[in-house]
Protein 1
Amino acid sequence: MKSPAINQAMDILRELREISEASRDIPEKLNKIIAMLARQMGADAAACYLVVDDNYLELFAASGFNADIAHKISLRVGEGLVGEVAKTGRFLTVANVWKHPSFSYKPEMGEEPFKSFAGVPLIRWHRAIGVITLQKKEVYEFSRTELEVLETVAMVLADMAASEEMIDYKNDLIRARGQSGKEKYKGISLSKGYGIGNAVVHRRRQAVTKIFAEDKDKELKRLEVAHAKMNHDLDEKFNSTKLGIGEHVDILDAYRMFAKDKGWYKKVADNVGSGLTAEAAVERAYEDMWNRLSGTKDSYMRERLHDLRDVADRLIGYLSGDPVSEQKVCHDNIIVVAQTMGPADLMDYDYTKIRGLVIEDGTPTMHVAIVAKALGIPVVAKINGIYNQIKNGELLALDGNEGYVYIRPSSPVQERFREKIKEKERLAAKLASLKKLPSKTKDGKKINLYLNVGLAFDLDYIETTNCDGIGLYRTEIPFMASEVMPDVAQQIGYYKELLDRAGNKKVVFRSLDVGSDKLLPYWSNAGEENPAIGWRSIRITLDRRAILRKQMRAFLRAAAGKELNVMFPMISNYAEFEEARETLMIELEKEKRRGNETPAKVNVGLMIEVPSVVFQLDSILRVADFISIGTNDLAQFVFACDRGNPRLTERYDVLSAPFLRVMQEIITRADQAGVLCSVCGEMAGNPIEAMALISLGYRNLSMSGSSFGRVKSMVRSLNVEEMEDYIKILLKSNRRTLRPQLISYANDHGIEIY
Ligand code: PEP
Ligand code: MG
């Protein structure tokens, strides 16, 4: 026996479907639906408002008000009762609107006779895209049951309002009024690069029109079949796509496990058991999860919610008999435009054709952006309202460096973009041609160039750059991409893979450097006031010694029979280095006692990142086999300047006398002690900064693969002896920055600093 509310909702939904099928004309359809709603709910008036641009709601259909009022009323989001429903995204009932402080009277509507009000938002992607209202002439409290019916109708209307035909209708209206014409939009860059191509609007979500099921068993069977088919197809797709290796693959694997999660499946099945259709059950399970987790500040959990949205959409697609297989696109160069996207969505397209990705709701950590970056696809995100602005097939130009999207770009803009894309290709070709040439300065000094790696796809650079080795392996990166703390066997797997790929080249492993900006998903943030100078890096691993011991064991076993280079980050004094070094040595002894093969040679070093160690270099250089300077952290502590604070980026410069003198001090001491000294912070990967370092005496630089070619090109055009005198003069300067002087010097001396 179904409740009266369910019976009433089913009657309304049946009529709604009949109206939708009978009528093609959008205004007629909406008017009929609203009139039907007023009649069925026993109200004297009803209305439907839709958001037209980000901040305005427009009356699209009305019943019981003055005739021909549609499209003549608009309200700011937040204005009046309707605006409040849109702003809060929550229903609102008022027994007598004339006594309500937020009521905004619109005389042209003819609403004088009405007293009571109920408004429910149309929600899409957690945002109100419209509002439906009911009004009665009497003072009246709308009941919870009536609201539930209204919410069910709102769910269906929201799908209708977000349909392609409705968006086109709205855009035509806006264009006809001449409100449009803006063609350049600013967002944030999530992956660099330029792209030009035809828009493919990513609309995957199916409308859930049938909410209640007649036959639970049949419905459960449908769910079971669709779920199994979806997982089978996902497995096939992932296994057959050439994705290489890397963090993006870990993300996609985690997604796959999510799609198979038994707990979530059980929740959906329970919802079916309570009378919902399988589609509505999926939607309800997602909404429950969203309600529980959406308030979290934890970016990892938020990304998981995005993934779950994607899995839910995918499953609904399978349930409706319209699974998402390869998206059919008729252009060779496409830019995918999505409101939001899960990581697997990208693989529904032939990604070799994707020249860019625009995501209306995006965050830097969102999984699809990480996958896109790994595939070399530029991404621009966070542009409010852009999703509804763009039509399939429209030409778009995307500037992933600055975060701009151009809709229907003019010919000069198109020309500029094509030129930038070509320029990038030309530079890449020129830099690739340097691969076989030695990394020597014009006056014959050999500069060893190493790679910084972390993500597995960084390893591809080992082959493409012909580097001298790996100067920094950020071991925390696979820890960050993992769901749980990797055990020794898993760690050995990561480290061995790197050593195998590096062949005979030297590899420097850095011990776990977590905390501050590098958080592990399975470790809660300590909630410190100053995490950059808090419990982080070696401070954590010395306190949680088991983690350090396990990592040392994994290093030793992975490098059995080979040379092992280990360095410790964020060392603040000699004692800390000794303690860390001792931990490694004890593990080495244990390995020997166990009879395990040990590395042929073990070199132990540290990172120079904390200014205090510069004042203890004499002692440290007596025991350390090598040192490597983390200029990113060192600069933040030398200048007392947060390395991630954009307000401060212009204020202090590593290319200034105080910092260059610190750098000079370190290399001079290391050379005197005969200890190998390299730089592995960002400074080493920036041609103009690397040029200054070489003139100070540095001969070992470690950088990201993408900087390698540009630095090598600078090295090959530099005459070190000629520059040494000039840098000595600059070290006496009191200027805030020496960058302009160094750039002029490079330009005057034909030094290539791209
Ligand atoms: C540095 O601090 O310069 C460095 C190389 O380490 P990370 O950037 O990983 O902190
Ligand atoms: Mg550092």
Protein 2
Amino acid sequence: MDCIFCKIIAGEIPSAKIFENEWIYAFKDINPEAPCHILVIPKKHIASMDEITEENSVYVSKIFESIPEIAKLGGAENGYRVISNCGKDAGQTVFHLHFHVIGGTELPIHVFPEK
Ligand code: AMP
Ligand code: ZN
């Protein structure tokens, strides 16, 4: 399958690893939007949040069980935000489920800052 995050998990594409266990892999975003910008992904190809099912949701639980530790390892000492873009309108560009963990600075509260 031609999935860049599956290739990162397989070690075929290099990544800056932050954390890994049997279920999940976490690495630095190549184009960070904050001092801490980590992507956390399941070690199973799930295309997006739309594809989460009873059968594969254990991967999502495992991701959220480890996010507090991953955020600290990434340098988000005073809080962090978790984002998952799902589909075209949200701007999803990589169709392997991933959660952005963003922090390391004060973040703007609104999605539309002019609001
Ligand atoms: P999204 O727009 O939510 O699908 O996010 C995809 C994210 O993957 C973007 O923030 C990219 O910067 C990031 N990304 C794409 N390719 C790589 C890569 N090879 N290593 C690390 N991050 C990547
Ligand atoms: Zn994949």
